[in-house]
Amino acid sequence: SSFLSVQPQQSSMGDIVWGHAVSKDLIHWLHLPLAMVADQWYDINGVWTGSATILPDGKIVMLYTGSTNESVQVQNLAYPADHSDPLLLNWVKYSGNPVLVPPPGIGYKDFRDPTTAWFTSEGKWRITIGSKLNKTGMSLVYDTKDFKTYELLNGVLHAVPGTGMWECVDFYPVSKTSDKGLDTSVNGPDVKHVVKASLDDDRNDYYAFGTYDEKTGKWVPDNEKIDVGIGIRYDYGKFYASKTFFD
């Protein structure tokens, strides 16, 4: 399944809902009914970007950003109504939403786009969420055991002055010894991590390779001169808000 942001009226971010399509080859797609629409106080101004995490038992949880009735950006939890449905047609929004609100010091419109979670050696799931402080783009880090309650880690995954708001942050491992993809939770001496951010200020996707320290929850670029937002772009055409997946 693929979930996509859809603007039915092509007018504003408040119209955004989640479309749903399936494919066997990533070329030919079958469009299904909308997965989630803006129908709750915590997402009435838009069901924005989110990410799925597949749990060890095969079940799926989805975190997504909602724009509330007061236009505050919050994170919400959703899950399939029937995990045995191969098309995952129907989705349920958690009754305790929102599960995350902007932390102290972060603007209420500067807190969006949670990543797929990765599993830490402490037995917790970890996510990162795009943000900014003044003109410094950054990615906040949270730990959770159940996707309902969260702990904000000290510091940030990474921050780059002058890059502005980071949207649709992506964070994933790549192998130094193989060309095969890796599950989000893989780490170790033969692994590098990529941080990618979509810069709201210039509407381009930037990425950088670096080293991730799980204990501190921080990522350091291999080369500060080509850091996130000031170095390499994913693509040099019209390309924005990309998202990786591992299958």
Automatic annotation (TrEMBL):
Q: What is this protein called?
A: Vacuolar invertase
Query: Can the keyword Hydrolase be found in this entry's annotation?
Result: yes
Residues forming the Glycosyl hydrolase family 32 N-terminal domain are: 6-247
The record's section on InterPro entries has: Fructan_Metab_Enzymes, Glyco_hydro_32, Glyco_hydro_32_N, Glyco_hydro_beta-prop_sf
Annotated GO biological processes are: carbohydrate metabolic process
A Pfam family this chain is assigned to: Glyco_hydro_32N
The cross-references to PANTHER family, in alphabetical order and at most eight, read: BETA-FRUCTOFURANOSIDASE, INSOLUBLE ISOENZYME CWINV1-RELATED
Question: In which family does this protein belong, per the annotation?
Answer: Belongs to the glycosyl hydrolase 32 family.
